[in-house]
Design brief:
With 319 residues, the protein is of the alpha+beta class. The protein contains 14 helices and 10 strands. Helix 7 (123-133) runs antiparallel to helix 9 and helix 8 crosses helix 9 (215-225).
């Protein structure tokens, strides 16, 4: 998208979005609800949902347990929406803009900009972060960098999702799902553990900038506080993005890069995490397609790169 269009959207929607509550497998209930809404059904028999594009969700323990009281009967959108585990994760969602039309640096499919959905930590986690890590700065901490599309206005970004879309073609493209925070915290801890084998007195600040806490503090933070987030960050980020695209932007056809096509069209020299572009979209029910997103094909620059890719493929979900 053009940068000015993204800024207009952010102005309309507001940079500070809302709280986002999430527990493992929550996306299953939202996508089943969207499937019912697509078919204009407020209620639906479970057998019909099992035959839908999201039928594989019914093999999950979470879904089985939640829907077992309904037997083979009907369930409503409201009932799907109201299912919650006892203590969900709580994130704050914000919006940002990324990219200045420099394809090699921005890693965008078009020589344009992306809307960024930022998934930010909230109170409970931040209290532990400040007490254990004791960062020297309150804005940009040791596990984040403003050269990436993080929130720089008082929030701490766990992960982000970069989006491109076209309202006229009813298409959105998930360009990237990524985090720095969890990876960098783990890297700092592993680096310190390795170096302490030869020098047991080393502190976290000796191997990683801006950490004021001690070794035991960093160990507790990474192994205990961050472990639950490590298990769900990618799933929660994609769930938040789909919900945002479907409910707030109003787009129902969502594309997602495959690993090979994404690397080539975005001109990525390094190797991004493969599972985020293979296992994650399949987990959500995206299907492989050779169908080129119309808004990409209509872009002269993107079309040239697509034509140079042997057998380009994307994932697609239609809601």
């Amino acid at each position: 998208m053009k940068q000015k269009d993204i800024k207009e959207i952010i102005t309309c929607l507001g940079e500070e979005r809302r709280l986002f509550y999430y527990h493992k497998d929550r996306y299953c209930f939202d996508l089943l609800r969207y499937e019912m809404d697509k078919n204009k059904r407020q209620t639906c028999k479970l057998n019909q949902l099992k035959q839908s594009q999201f039928g594989h969700f019914f093999t999950k323990k979470t879904v089985k347990e939640a829907l077992s009281p309904y037997g083979q009967g009907e369930i409503s959108q409201e009932q799907l929406n109201s299912y919650w585990q006892e203590k969900p994760f709580i994130f704050a969602l914000t919006l940002g803009c990324w990219g200045n039309g420099e394809r090699g640096w921005d890693q965008t499919s078009r020589n344009q900009s992306n809307l960024v959905l930022q998934i930010n930590f909230t109170g409970e986690h931040l209290a532990k972060y400040y007490s254990l890590i004791k960062p020297g700065r309150q804005d940009e901490g040791p596990f984040e960098s403003d050269i990436h599309p993080i929130n720089t206005k008082g929030r701490h970004t766990m992960a982000w999702v970069r989006l491109d879309f076209d309202l006229d073609t009813n298409e959105a493209l998930i360009e990237e799902v990524q985090n720095d925070w969890l990876r960098d915290a783990y890297s700092a801890y592993q680096r310190l553990k390795a170096k302490r084998k030869n020098n047991p007195s080393l502190k976290p600040c000796d191997v990683w900038y801006d950490i004021g806490g001690g070794y035991e503090d960093l160990s507790c933070y990474v192994e205990t506080c961050l472990q639950p987030y490590q298990q769900i960050w990618a799933e929660a980020s994609l769930a938040a993005a789909i919900q945002f695209i479907r409910e707030e932007i109003g787009i129902t056809q969502i594309y997602y890069h495959t690993y090979e096509t994404g690397k080539k069209i975005k001109d990525i020299a390094h190797n991004p995490p493969r599972s985020v572009y293979t296992k994650l979209p399949k987990q959500f029910g995206f299907k492989l397609t050779t169908e080129v997103p119309t808004f990409l094909y209509n872009d002269k620059v993107a079309r040239r790169y697509i034509k140079a890719i042997p057998q380009p493929r994307w994932f697609v979900m239609r809601l």
